[in-house]
């Protein structure tokens, strides 16, 4: 490997290190927010809060998967992109089922947790 390529390889390694650090930070933030908001959604019987928290869980899973494949081949990264889409699709279907159940069962969110006007 010539001198030019060695410096580029070092730059790429440094960039990946920075990407991994950022991914770990946003993974921790999204995981914590998921736990907090999902708990509030369960307590308040709020599908909206649970749906938003599930979005954060999906983001956290995507960040975790991104961390796993960041140093892998293009094939791994392409597979991860498909998996990310399937994760989000599964969560969307789950929220639609949850909302449908609550509509048919007549479950309403607790008013004090929705906010006051």
Give the topology, please.
Blueprint: H1 3-44, H2 47-69, H3 74-105, H4 111-114
Helix pairs in contact: 1-2, 2-3
Short description:
The protein is mostly helical and 117 residues long.
* Quaternary state of the chains: single chain
Number of helices: 4
Mean of all residue-level pLDDT scores = 84
Structural class call reads: mainly alpha
Termini Cα gap: 67 Å
Overall number of domains: 1
Unreliable residue stretches = none
Outline, from the CA principal axes? elongated
Q: Estimate the helix proportion, in percent.
A: over 70%
* Strand coverage percent: under 5%
Please give the largest β-sheet.
none
* Rg from Cα: 20 Å
| Number of E strands | 0
H-E string: HHHH
What does this structure look like?
- The protein is mostly helical.
- The protein has one domain (3-108).
- Helix content is 86%, strand content 0%.
- It is built from 4 helices and no strands.
- It has helices at 3-44, 47-69, 74-105, 111-114.
- Helix 1 (3-44) runs antiparallel to helix 2 (47-69) and helix 2 (47-69) packs antiparallel against helix 3.
- The longest helix is centred in the first third of the chain and has 42 residues, at 3-44.
- The chain is elongated and about 70 Å long.
- 12% of the residues are buried.
- The mean pLDDT is 84.
């Amino acid at each position: 490997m010539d001198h030019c390529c060695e410096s580029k390889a070092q730059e790429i390694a440094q960039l990946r290190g920075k990407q991994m650090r950022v991914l770990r930070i946003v993974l921790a933030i999204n995981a914590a927010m998921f736990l907090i908001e999902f708990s509030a959604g369960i307590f308040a019987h709020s599908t909206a809060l649970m749906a938003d928290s599930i979005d954060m869980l999906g983001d956290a899973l995507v960040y975790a998967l991104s961390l796993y494949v960041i140093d892998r081949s293009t094939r791994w990264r392409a597979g991860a992109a498909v998996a990310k889409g399937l994760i989000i699709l599964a969560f969307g279907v789950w929220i639609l089922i949850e909302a449908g159940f609550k509509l048919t069962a007549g479950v309403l969110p607790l008013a004090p947790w929705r906010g006051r006007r």
